[in-house]
C-alpha cells in the first residue's frame, strides 16, 4: 500500500504543472518588484490670468519624449490654486507640458517644465505662471 501511494504521488497532475506555476509566481514577483513608485506632481498656479482658464491638459513625457501620462482637467470658473497629478514614475528626468485653454477656445502656447525625480521623491511641487495674457 505504501508503494501504491508513492506511485500516485509521483503521477499527480499538480506535479506536472509545478514548473509552470513556479514560473508564474516568479514572474508576478518580478513584475511587482520593478513597479515604479507612485509620485504626486503638484503645481501652484501663481500670478494673474488663471481665472480665465477653463481647461488644463497635463502631459508627462520621459527623457525619450514618449508620453507617459496625460490628463485633461476642466473647470467651470477657473482652476483651483493647486493642481496635482498622481502618476507612477521611476527615477529620472521628465518634461511636463501644460496646455491651458481659456474661455475663448484655442490653447495657449504650452508651458514646459523639466522635472528630475530621485528615488526618495514622492512629491514634487512647483510654481506655474502663465507666460503672457492676451
UniProtKB/TrEMBL annotation:
**Where does the sequence pass through the membrane?**
14-31
State the name under which the record lists this protein: Uncharacterized protein
Q: What keywords does the record list, in alphabetical order?
A: Membrane, Transmembrane, Transmembrane helix
Amino acid at each position: 500500500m505504501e508503494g501504491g501511494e508513492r506511485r500516485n504521488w509521483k503521477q499527480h497532475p499538480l506535479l506536472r504543472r509545478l514548473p509552470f506555476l513556479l514560473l508564474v509566481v516568479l514572474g508576478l514577483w518580478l513584475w511587482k518588484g520593478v513597479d515604479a513608485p507612485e509620485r504626486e506632481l503638484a503645481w501652484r498656479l501663481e500670478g494673474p490670468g488663471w481665472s480665465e482658464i477653463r481647461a488644463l491638459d497635463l502631459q508627462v513625457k520621459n527623457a525619450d519624449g514618449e508620453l507617459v501620462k496625460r490628463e485633461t482637467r476642466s473647470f467651470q470658473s477657473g482652476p483651483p490654486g493647486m493642481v496635482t497629478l498622481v502618476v507612477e514614475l521611476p527615477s529620472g528626468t521628465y518634461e511636463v507640458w501644460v496646455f491651458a485653454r481659456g474661455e475663448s477656445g484655442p490653447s495657449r502656447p504650452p508651458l514646459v517644465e523639466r522635472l528630475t525625480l530621485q528615488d526618495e521623491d514622492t512629491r514634487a511641487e512647483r510654481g506655474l505662471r502663465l507666460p503672457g495674457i492676451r
